[in-house]
Design brief:
By secondary structure, the chain is α+β, with helices and mostly antiparallel strands. It contains 2 helices and 2 strands; from the N terminus they run βαβα. Strand 1, helix 1 and strand 2 form a beta-alpha-beta unit. The longest helix has 10 residues. The protein is elongated and about 40 Å long. It comes from Nonomuraea recticatena.
């Protein structure tokens, strides 16, 4: 398999590996939406939303 799911915190060395392996990144963008829209209601610290 040549994909990584939930790759939101990818760093530069990971990008290099992806390129060498011709892999695919599937970020989970809804996570950021949920933190922004619902983080406060769930008691998360302000830095999380």
């Amino acid at each position: 398999m040549r994909s990584v799911e939930h790759g939101n915190l990818i760093d530069d060395s990971s990008v290099e590996l992806f390129l060498r392996k011709d892999a695919f990144l599937v970020p989970t963008l809804v996570t950021y939406w949920a933190l922004k829209e619902e983080g406060m209601a769930f008691g998360l610290p302000e830095a999380s939303w």
